[in-house]
Amino acid sequence: MKTIGLLSDTHGYLDESVFTHFADCDEIWHAGDVGTIVQADTLAAFKPLRCVYGNIDGQDVRIVHPEHQFFEIEGVKIWMTHIGGYPGRYPSKIKDTLLRFKPGLFICGHSHILKVIYIQKFKLLHLNPGAAGKHGWHKVRTLLKFTISDKKIANLVVIEIGEK
Q1: Do residues 161 and 14 touch, judged by C-beta distance below 8 A?
Q2: List of residues 6+ apart from 104 with CB closer than 8 A
Q3: Bridge partners, residue 31, by sequence
C-alpha cells in the first residue's frame, strides 16, 4: 500500500502545513504550476516527489520535471499532467491519450477547481487537487491524500489548508 499526497498550483508558495498533512505519505505528487524549482526541491527533500511542469513554470522546473508522467503503482496505471481539461469535455489530444494509455487514475491541475470524478466512459478516476498556492481566483487552498493498494484507490481525503 502507498499513501499519496497530491497538490497542484502552488505558484511559488508552499504552505508549511503541507509537511504536517503529508507526514505519513510515501510519495508526494505535484500536478504542475510549481512556481520555481525551490518548491519542487523542498518537497523532494521531504518525500519522494513525482512532479509535472505547468504553464507558468520556467525552464528551472521544466528541465527537471516533464510535462507528462505515465507510471504504475500497486497495479493502477496513472497519468499525471497539468492541463487535462474537464471530464466529459476532454480535448481530442487528451482523449486520444486516455484511450491509448488507459489509466485508472488521471490527475491534472490548472483549473484551481477541486475535482474527484469517476469517468465511466474511460473507467478512470479523475483527480484535480485544486490549488495549494495563494495565486489565482480560488478562495480556499486544497490538497488531496489517498491510498493505492491492490489495484484500488481508497481513503481519499480532501484537506483544506486555509483561505487564499
Answers
A1: no
A2: 76, 77, 78, 123, 124, 125, 151, 153
A3: none
Grid cell locating 109: 491541475
pLDDT values of the chain reduced to their tens digit, one per residue, 164 residues: 999 999 999 999 999 999 999 999 999 999 999 999 999 999 999 999 999 999 999 999 999 999 999 999 999 999 999 999 998 889 999 999 999 999 999 999 999 999 999 999 999 999 999 999 998 889 999 999 999 999 999 999 999 999 98
Q: Which amino acid is at 28?
A: I
CA distance 32 to 7: 8
Specify the amino acid at residue 12: G
- Buried b / exposed e across 55-64, counting CB within 10 Å, b at 16+? ebbeebbeeb
How does DSSP classify residue 55? T
d(CA 151, CA 77): 9
